[in-house]
Amino acid sequence: MDVEAIKIIVAGATIAIGAMFPAFSIGWLAGKAMEAIGRNPEAASKIQTAMILAIAFAEAIAIYALVMALIIKFV
Question: How many domains does the chain have?
Answer without folding.
Answer: 1
